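Bit of a strange request maybe. I'm writing a small parser for structure token strings and I need a real example to test against, not something I typed by hand. Could someone generate the tokens for this chain?
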Amino acid sequence: MKTLAKSQPLYGQLAVRSALRRLTAAGHLRRVGGHSGGPVLKHVTRTYFSRVPRDEHWWCAFLHVTPRPPEPEPEPEPVACRPRRTRRSEAYESRTARAAPAPTALSRPRTISQDRANGPTPRAC
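Reply from user aminoacidic:
Good idea to test on real output. This should exercise your parser:
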């Protein structure tokens, strides 16, 4: 993948990987990993390309392997919301007490230019 991305100066590794993944999903490309048969074991990845999109059974027959049975899709687990903290830590309380004094009746409201100078306000979770 790095070599292919290096030979395509207009595209990066992420774009090449996305394109290869889409070609694999469409059935045009098959990448097979294994070990070489020589005296020194090396991990080798072989890539096969077909102009015509092929299904899983065709690729397995071509590569002389038995097809894997389709795996059932797992049911999505319900998303559990994290309970909100009701008590704040002492460090947070001491920092907020120093950072912003309590508003008084004589304090003026902030202007838009003051808000921009102070930066964005943090969003609550």
